[in-house]
């Protein structure tokens, strides 16, 4: 690569180094005309083009020139300022894209937890608008089962023998189902199901305790509780709706 192929710019005090072909991606733009000395506003100082504009916003413009995609942080809000910078450099394609702000903003991530309590058992179903979040939750949640004869059951705590992990039900990529509590099965077998949610190491059997731990885990992962409502009062189905406020680290 020759020295003519590499261009250095100082934009608002920030230095950028790129290929000449990147700046020439849109031949009618001011950045392309700058290289042919057709735009007097861009001056060369010690071999670098000096541009008295916002350097931070220019980094997004450079990213667009390199990838032909608009990739902005989830918390980005300066759409109007960035569009003004795109118009200054006469990058009309980028300016038009930034005018469609509603398409560029990240979609709100919603999570819904449904909780159904029936006698000594509790049932959970989690719906998520983001499948990767549901997948991460499925890796955090483990259900363990313990089976004993009915007459030998006298403690709400796990027995000393190893508990058997059960797979979670995954009706789709956007939801998961699990349960906890106790029930009698055929042959006078007493079945207990415990739930563990990482990073907590406890194995909980009480549905209300599991619900509290699940909500606390989601709040710690960047969600906030939007609302709670009773879906079916006769069956005591409760619904907790949460919204993502920040991305996980």
TrEMBL record:
SMART domains assigned: BTB (SM00225)
One of the GO BP terms on file: protein homooligomerization
PANTHER family documented for this protein: POTASSIUM CHANNEL REGULATORY PROTEIN, POTASSIUM CHANNEL TETRAMERIZATION DOMAIN-CONTAINING
Gene that encodes the chain: Kcnrg
InterPro entries per UniProt: BTB/POZ_dom (IPR000210), SKP1/BTB/POZ_sf (IPR011333), T1-type_BTB (IPR003131)
GO cellular component, one term: endoplasmic reticulum
Protein name: KCNRG protein
Domain BTB: 5-106
The species this protein was found in: Nothoprocta pentlandii
